[in-house]
Amino acid sequence: MLSAASCPLEEFLPEYLSKSSEGAYALRLAFTTFFRALGFQATYFVGIIGSATYLLGADAMEASLLVVLLNVTFVAAGAAAGVVVDRIGPRMTMLFFLALLGVTGIIGVAFPMGMMLLVVVNVLEGIAGGFCMTASSAYPRYLADNAAVLQKINSYNNTALCVAVIAGPLIGGWLTVLFTSQMVFAVLPVSSSISALFVWKLPELLHPEGTEKKEGEGFWKQLAEGIHIVFSHPVIAALFLIYFLGYFAYGAFDSLESLFYRDVLRVGSEWMGWLSSAAGLGSTVGALAVLRFSTKRLSLETIALLLVVIGVGSMVYVGTASVAIALIGQLIAGFGFGAMGPVKDTVLQRNCDIRYIGRATSVLSVGMNSAGTLPLLIAPSVADVFGVQAALFGASTIAAAIGALALAWTHVGNPKEA
Known about the structure:
- By secondary structure, this protein is mostly helical.
- It has one domain: MFS general substrate transporter like domains (Growth Hormone, Chain: A, Up-down Bundle), CATH 1.20.1250.20.
- The N terminus is likely disordered.
């Protein structure tokens, strides 16, 4: 079996990425995350939802069902991913599911466009994306255990993700203009291959003990152990609750957002890419801004404040029929999302033993994705009564209110840091 050190792909890496140093490892993880997320960001919103809405004429319920299917797949994959990451490590997990992501893109291009194709691509992308996202989020804990170093690695990692949110939809938008939204799926095999190149040369510097499967201890027992770790720790449990409630309110966007572009803003599907890229720009600024935070500010209180920013930004985004104002809203909300990611990851990693980091990461991911499932089913009915714009504005207001309540609770010292 080839070792990472003997891989000839090292020759393709720039010199500064080939060195064995803390900074080089952080950059490798960032590049891994960027190219992995680039494919997903280019294909999901523009490729899957855009094709369903514009090529197949899907209504709100059909778009919602596609997103529900992706969320359910993400939840299932995320639940399994934590156990797998804790058993074999994030590196091998990512390599395997990056390969699946590449195959998914080939399927998306090779077969005739139809709802069944979108369902298949949706499921496969959800499985691969769920595993890769959990592994990528847990990876920094395998590189460092110091809060300041984790802050830097998580900021780089989330910045790479945010840049992908800019570049992915732009690529998807241009491919849609030049060809059709189906051609967007061609991005997946290219981006996943480049991502695999970087993760192949990314070692795991810290190695947990006692995470291998024990006799008589199956998947479900290990998963239950991870759930217990999350809800028995006051800080991690509160982190889960804030994220769950925030994403519960925000879940309506996935099913109604494409209709907001078509029926309220009255723009073409390429604008789904352009304005998503604006959110990515705001997110990039937010993720980089975390580098300027003191480690004392990496807290639940900061996360609650950022949820308020996201809610207010979303209210601006959907509050009018103006594309210009929607752009401003996307920048504001994007900043909140971008800053929240590295703060959340650092809070989790410094409060969780490395033996359970995969499962703890996956439990938070499962909570985030499952929280958005119920609103997906309710949102079309609410939109039928009040309209798409009113439903989205209401969801944004709820998210801001939840953030404000969490901010008031955490400001007085709840819960106590471990």
